[in-house]
Amino acid sequence: MGNLYVALVHYPVVDKNGAVISSAVTNLDLHDIARAAKTFGVYRFFVVTPLSDQFLLVDRIVSHWVTGYGARYNPKRRQALELIRTAASIDEAGQRIAEKEGCPPQRIATSAHHHDRCISYGRCRKIIDGKNPCLLLFGTAWGLDRAVMANSDHILQPVTGCGDWNHLSVRSAVSIILDRLISKRG
Amino acid sequence: MGNLYVALVHYPVVDKNGAVISSAVTNLDLHDIARAAKTFGVYRFFVVTPLSDQFLLVDRIVSHWVTGYGARYNPKRRQALELIRTAASIDEAGQRIAEKEGCPPQRIATSAHHHDRCISYGRCRKIIDGKNPCLLLFGTAWGLDRAVMANSDHILQPVTGCGDWNHLSVRSAVSIILDRLISKRG
After folding, report:
1. According to the model, what pLDDT value does residue A76 have?
2. Is A72's Cβ below 8 Å from some Cβ in B?
3. Chain A 137-176, CB below 8 Å of chain B: which residues?
């Protein structure tokens, strides 16, 4: 099985009106997604933003927990947040994965909406269990821009509950999707 | 099937040293858990705290999204946050459920640790699919106090990933557990 990577994308994503924006980094996204990533054996968690001030914010938060006071206060949190890397674009994250792994990752986009070429969780598990590294892409704000979907190798079926209300936080969506893809059920 | 309820407990919970404390309400807990609750058909989401200032904080946040500007800005968020109720104790939540349902709920505690009387997700699904209402209890901080575990009808098996690192946020844990208990997999 190749290494699994997660990217939380702040650009290009869409706002509630469908316009392409760069969203702001949210502190709890870093914590919750790093903790889920650590739980489910994700190799690295990329925070994707082209904005230099947001880069600095991520570095400051991560440093506090990985090398600063937070690392002593809560060593378990350190083990999660040290999975975080920043990247200026999805392509940059892909290139860095390719340098590490020797081949580019399969890009798997996620969405709250159904797309014609959506793949099931079972199919996605098989792709992840294959030899190649995989990069799961999650959008902040109102989701990934359509160009990201078009450039992805696969689009994963949305998480649905017991009705058509489908507005989970990205923190919840990452957690559920990693659990569905990775956990071996007892 | 009886109605399913979720309680996010701020007292009695334990801190990192095992002392019983009352934790502070976190804004994103309300949003993320309400959104997960709405997705998975939970009937009500109780925020349990005995502290009157924390009660007021919850009411202020919920009012903004249910009747204030937030309700117009994001009607989907309103539909989630209107599931929230405050209760001064787990017992009070249980009493209010009993008044609505005609019988007290089965209390199902959750924990990041294994307990001798843990039940599986399959067993828990059967309990939830039964006639009686159920109340899923989630602890903030370092988890529910042992007295809560002792007074619960059942304790659910912890969420584990692919190793022994087991430190999800409560937001992630609620999301994964509701998905495991409610979703019908395709």
Report:
1. 93
2. no
3. 157, 159-163, 165-169, 171-176
